[in-house]
Amino acid sequence: MMFKDNLLDDLMREHGPSVSAPEASRRSLRPVLVAAAAVAIAGAATVAITNNSPEAWAVTKNADGSVTVTIRDIKGVSAANAKLREYGIGAKAVPMSRDCAPLDESKLDLLGGYKLPEIGADGSVTMSPGDVPPGYTVLLGISNLPGRGTGLGFTGPHRDPAPDCLAEVGN
Which residues does 86 contact at the CB level (< 8 Å), separation at least 6? Predict the structure, then answer.
């Protein structure tokens, strides 16, 4: 879903009852919604310029062809995965949840022949195309539980198809 669609959905969810045409008028609500969305977009742009909080995700291509991945919020998983695919990285970001089944270890490549992600001091991971054997995917787990920090957890290569979530462990 695009930013504008999400913004309009949020606007309607939060202010839907107050955004309505007068009873006496038969005019369309579309101009009101378009105007409200334009005001909301302008407000969001102002917040984005003045807000110093880190982005939900970043996938940065480095000069050597490697890619550095940072995901600070589960909301960034889909967008980060699109960039990982674009750059040919054998990894998939997935949310961690207590509702997710534990990994089937028989599907993990535990023998080697691959390069694990490099962990950055900021909680990012760096990988290169070809680090993971064909037919396998390294899972990058992101948790929004309090006290988990902003780093990514990761698995060894998992035979495809890779699961869509990882089991949350600990408190």
Answer: none
